[in-house]
């Protein structure tokens, strides 16, 4: 079958990503363990396909890094403690472009014009959390566990979102003067846990909350 810009065919997809992580441990004493766990992720993709009979390009760039710091205390006695901090930051941007045939945008419009249908200029997610856990050993097989976590998250977004045929204002890389959108929000959350854990046999266990 043929579209206004030629036959519908298979299009290229390009994915390029990096994911890295590490763990660093320091033991100032036999009972104390300090652990730092960072990570980094990067993903770039460009995907070409057809929306009905229009060539379409969809792409995004994602960058994320996380950090976790843990301090554990366990001297082999009845009590052990785990505390920590966690933080993350993720940024994304991307867009969706459609290519139009002759007379599709307005009467007399030439073939091959690209419309910036969606343009996410900046999208940021970031947050942090503090957590802790206390364990009391009733016996070699049974222990009581109590813990809590508090977190705060922020989200911001900014971009362009034109009306698809009614307001075609970005063609072939010209400056974007489309209507903009922006929003932001902040959320906090606290939760807790309490449970009894019992090892039924070697390498197995059960818990009750």
Distance between the termini: 61 Å
Shape: elongated
Structural class: mainly beta
Q: What is the N-to-C order of secondary-structure elements (H for helix, E for strand)?
A: EEEEEEEEEEE
Proportion of residues in β-strands: over 45%
Percentage of residues in helical conformation: under 10%
Strand count:
11
User: Biggest β-sheet: count, sense, barrel?
Assistant: 9 strands, antiparallel
Give Rg in angstroms.
27 Å
Average pLDDT for all residues: 85
Low-confidence regions: 164-174
What is the helix tally? 0
What structural keywords apply?
about 210 residues; two-stranded antiparallel sheet; elongated
Write up what this structure looks like:
The chain has 209 residues and is mostly beta strands. 0% of the residues lie in helices and 69% in strands. It contains no helices and 11 strands. The strands form 2 sheets. Strands 3, 4, 5, 6, 7, 8, 9, 10 and 11 form a 9-stranded antiparallel sheet that branches. Strands 1-2 form a two-stranded antiparallel ribbon. Residues 164-174 have low confidence and may be disordered.
Task: Show the helix and strand layout.
Layout: E1 2-3, E2 6-7, E3 13-21, E4 24-26, E5 32-51, E6 54-74, E7 79-100, E8 113-137, E9 142-160, E10 180-198, E11 206-208
Antiparallel strand pairs: 1-2, 3-5, 4-5, 5-6, 6-7, 7-8, 8-9, 9-10, 10-11
